[in-house]
Amino acid sequence: MTTALQATRLQDRLSSELTRLKDAGLFISPRVLEAPQRARTRILGREVVNLASNNYLGFADHPFVKERAAAYLHAWGAGAGAVRTIAGTLQIHEDFEAQLAAFKHTGSALVLQSGFTTNQGVLGSLLQDGDLVLSDELNHASIIDGLRLSKATKKVFKHKDLNDLRRLLQEHPTSGLKLVITDGVFSMDGDIAPLGEMVKVAREFGAVTYVDDAHGSGVLGEQGRGTVHHFGLQHAEDVIQVGTLSKAWGVVGGYAAGHQDLRELLINKARPFLFSTGHPPAVVGALSAAIELVQQDSSFIERLWDNTRYFKRELQTLGFDIFGSETPITPVIFGEAPAAFEASRLLLERGIFAVGLGFPTVPKGLARIRNIVTAEHTRDDLDTALSAYAEVGRQLGVIGG
Ligand code: PMP
């Protein structure tokens, strides 16, 4: 009887929450890829050009990366066997972290399970009561959640607005640590943080800068070393870099790169590191191959940028608004959410997989399709997508002609 009552309560909760999400237009039902993560994949039984992934360099299914993953799997086993601080740190974990630190030109690096848990781990470990955090209004959800774990005073500055940042720093003096937090590349608009100027402002007030480079790593800077490198700040000891290993690097994981003391603090305090098992060997192998590949062969990044320039230019020639994007993340603005969702559906009918995003993920009136160009797309893939865009844009009255 009691069990039945509990089951009913649970069912009521589940269905009321699902109804609420559906009524608010927030219910998500992910598309299923019926073939590997590639520039062309398969959805609902048909081949599609994939403009929806973060697989910037095409490493998610690259033979060199997969071979190394298989080699590490066979040599080191399927799992790490324990959390890193107990018995789960394998030699390959440490070797990869040294490889990543050398690549990033930082004193050290630590790898965590994901970009999401990295923000939670670093912000949760570093910040204390009495500290001040200044966070860009468009920073990623994992930064927002990471900040919830700290007792620091949090202030949000207008997107990339250095005057607003300066105002907040002036209005909130503190003797504690001051941390200015920004995404390196913003995930919805594809614009780049003005890091050089931002670090200068931070320094005027004795603040440290924290960059989440999820979308800049593997994309910007020499050999894809990231946004911090792009601005020549890789040796700056007052800049902390975090990022993900799941986008350009094609696998999974997050990292924090900086001073050796940062690494040691995280090993001792970051809760995802302390209480959740580290990566399986295959992941470590794939990642080490990905970083090697980008250094051996510059054509991945060259193709990524050639494709990006071509796709953006042609979309603009067609009359689309790409909202000032500066990177392979290419939004196409459709106005209100229903128009963006309809455009996504019409594109899929024409064999193009590109996802529509509306409020609250992006501001009202700026609903869009977010396209991500990759190194793997051929000119033919992009031209197929552009013809579909032209048809759909005209049909929905977003472009003329
Ligand atoms: N930070 C930013 C800026 C991101 O875009 C993402 C990915 N959505 C993350 C962190 C989280 O990375 P991961 O997928 O590795 O958890």
TrEMBL record:
Domain Aminotransferase class I/classII large, residue spans: 47-387
CDD domains the record matches: KBL_like
UniProt xrefs under Pfam families: Aminotran_1_2 (PF00155)
InterPro entries on file: Aminotrans_II_pyridoxalP_BS (IPR001917), Aminotransferase_I/II_large (IPR004839), AON_synthase_class-II (IPR050087), AONS_Archaea/Firmicutes (IPR010962), PyrdxlP-dep_Trfase (IPR015424), PyrdxlP-dep_Trfase_major (IPR015421), PyrdxlP-dep_Trfase_small (IPR015422)
Keyword vocabulary terms for this entry: Ligase, Pyridoxal phosphate, Transferase
SUPFAM superfamilies per record: PLP-dependent transferases
GO molecular function, one term: pyridoxal phosphate binding
Transferase listed as a keyword: yes
Domain of life: Bacteria
Cofactor: pyridoxal 5'-phosphate
Subunit and interaction comment: Homodimer.
Family according to the record: Belongs to the class-II pyridoxal-phosphate-dependent aminotransferase family.
PANTHER family the UniProt entry points to: CLASS II AMINOTRANSFERASE/8-AMINO-7-OXONONANOATE SYNTHASE, LD36009P
Name the UniProt record assigns to this protein: 2-amino-3-ketobutyrate CoA ligase
Organism encoding this protein: Deinococcus ruber
